[in-house]
Amino acid sequence: MSTAQETVEYAPEHAPRLAWTEHAPEVYKAMVRLDGAARQGLDPKLYELVKIRASQINHCAFCLDMHTKDALAAGESVERIVQLSAWEESRHFYTDKELAAIELTEAITVLTDGFVPDEVYARAAEQFDEAELSRLIAAITVINAWNRFGVSTRMVPGHYQPGRHR
Q1: The pLDDT of residue 90 is above 60
Q2: Model's pTM, two decimal places?
Q3: Which residues contact residue 20 at a Cβ distance below 8 angstroms, ignoring those fewer than 6 apart?
């Protein structure tokens, strides 16, 4: 039996490839404005679930760090965040409206078939009015763009403080 405290050594943190926000500040500012416009009128928890799901698909660790923390700060449960990657088997954790948004997020994020299936769009259109659906599509589009900035420049996760980019 050991009484000494164990020391855990984690892998070293990687450096970002490029500080893109410093080199393209007008692009960054435009993205922030677009993100803010898309967010208007959407439920904050739903908005964060969409951001997390797209970021899971796109493997954007920086955005996962950010949006998981923002979701928790917005009152989202750990359980629903954890189950999101397996939402199809965990449907009972989400409302029909959330499920439609999550499914639409996947369809817009993964365009390998070249289109969003009609049935996926129809389910979302049943749950959201046209203004909400327009903002939801914009929010999904914006997080996919953010993910591409994060992944391509290897933005470093782990340092984000909730609400910093609102």
Answers
A1: yes
A2: 0.91
A3: 27, 28, 149, 153
